[in-house]
Structure formats: structure tokens, C-alpha cells
Design brief:
- The protein is α/β, with parallel strands linked by helices and 232 residues long.
- The chain folds into 2 domains: 15-34 and 105-227, HAD superfamily/HAD-like (Rossmann fold, 3-Layer(aba) Sandwich); 37-101.
- 43% of the residues lie in helices and 11% in strands.
């Protein structure tokens, strides 16, 4: 069944802005896809498997994983499946595979992607996710069918938090900064995009549908309906 698109009477992006936007760069986890999969993996599934594998308590497992996560936050290692597998002592891919039932689009995301295609925008998936994570999620959602390019940080050898990623992305796409919209659920990444000259930076209020909303320093939305031009 095709998801129905309803234009909002108020929009985070105005009609005149949409007329100016030719490039749309989209984060994956927490923006297009519900973050419940990733949050459950990192906060519950991985600590449990680590505790069982190393015969330690859940508290010790949580402490170990959180320590590494805090040390590596914002770096390419933080997003790297191979790095984490090395740290915990086993391949984390099979654990991710057991949670594929949690992988899915955020409400309204697929309809928004179809609308962007219909509008003739250049659509790029700009993600920090490891290519194996992208492949796992694409197998569940067919996300790649709705974007023109997937340009991930591991190919760039730099996370989206870094200016190097945005320089690399610009070389790959030749996007025009003042005509580009970027959506991400991470304000630090939005800061980097803004500093790279991206004209329109938008945050996400509810990256995880099962968690409480968060606040952003940027204009932000909950449902994708809020992004469409206002009804005339």
C-alpha cells in the first residue's frame, strides 16, 4: 500500500526554500530509519552477548562498552563494525542479524523519499554507518532504490563530524551549498554541515519512536509531513 502524503499547513521548510533546494542530503539512522534498532543493539543486545561471552556481569559489560563508546564518540571507529568486533572479542554482525525485525523506516520517510524523486531533487544518503550495516538495513527496507547515491564515512575515511567528510562529499557530488538541504538527528554533525556551507540544516525530534523526544539547536521535525511545502 502506498503511503499517502498530506501537505502540512505549517512547514519546517518553506515553499520558497524548496524552490531553491536542488540537493537533499539525508542521514540514515534516526533520520530515515527508526533508531530503535540501533539503540536496542547498543544498550541491550550487545552488552548481553558480551556478558555471556566473557562470563561477566551485565554491569561490567555495560561499563566496558560505554567506556569505549565515550572514548571514541564522534570518531570513525565509533561507527566501525570491525573496530567494535575487535574490542569486544567477537564478530558483532550475527547479533545485529538477530534484530532485523526492528529495522524500518521512520513514519513518513518512504513517502518523503518518493516525493523527492517526483520533485526531481538530487537525493544522497550521507551516513556514518559501516557498509555492512548499510547492506543489512537495505536488505530490509530497499532504501538504496530511493536515493541517487550512498556516500558513507568509511569511504571518505572521515566521519560526518569532520570537515574532511564534507570536502570529500562535495568532490563526489559537486553539490551547491546554498541550494542544499541536510537532515540529521545529531547536532554535532549538523554543525559540521553548517560550517561546510550547507544552506539548510534540519534536525529530528524523535529519532527513536520508542523513546522520548529530544531537542535540537536547529529547526527540527517529528513527522516528515512537516517538511512538505505548506498547503496553498
Amino acid at each position: 500500500m502506498t503511503e499517502h502524503v498530506e501537505h502540512s499547513t505549517t512547514s519546517v521548510v518553506t515553499s520558497s526554500q524548496w524552490q531553491n533546494i536542488s540537493w537533499v542530503l539525508l542521514d540514515m539512522d534516526g533520520t530515515l530509519l527508526d533508531l530503535c534498532f540501533d539503540d536496542h543493539f547498543w544498550q541491550s543486545a550487545l552488552p548481553q552477548v558480551y556478558a555471556e561471552y566473557h562470563q561477566v556481569s551485565m554491569a561490567e559489560a555495560d561499563a566496558f562498552i560505554n567506556r569505549i563508546a565515550n572514548e571514541k564518540y564522534g570518531s570513525l571507529d565509533w561507527y566501525c563494525i570491525d573496530f567494535w568486533s575487535q574490542q569486544v572479542g567477537f564478530d558483532i554482525r550475527p547479533t545485529k542479524q538477530t534484530l532485523t525485525h526492528l529495522i524500518g523506516f521512520r513514519k513518513g520517510a518512504l513517502a518523503f523519499l518518493k516525493w523527492l524523486k517526483h520533485q526531481g531533487k538530487h537525493v544522497v544518503l550521507a551516513t556514518n554507518a559501516h557498509p555492512d550495516s548499510i547492506a543489512l538495513k537495505d536488505a530490509q527496507t530497499d532504501l538504496s532504490a530511493w536515493v541517487d547515491h550512498i556516500l558513507h564515512a568509511h569511504d571518505a575515511n572521515a566521519p560526518k563530524e569532520s570537515a574532511n567528510y564534507w570536502q570529500w562529499l562535495h568532490k563526489k557530488t559537486q553539490f551547491i551549498g546554498e541550494q542544499t538541504l541536510f537532515i540529521d538527528d545529531n547536532d554535532h554533525i549538523l554543525d559540521a554541515a553548517h560550517n561546510a556551507g550547507i544552506g539548510y540544516c534540519i534536525g529530528v525530534n524523535t529519532p527513536n519512536s520508542a523513546a522520548e523526544p529530544k531537542t535540537s539547536r536547529y529547526p527540527a521535525f517529528d513527522h516528515f509531513q512537516e517538511l512538505y511545502p505548506p498547503s496553498i
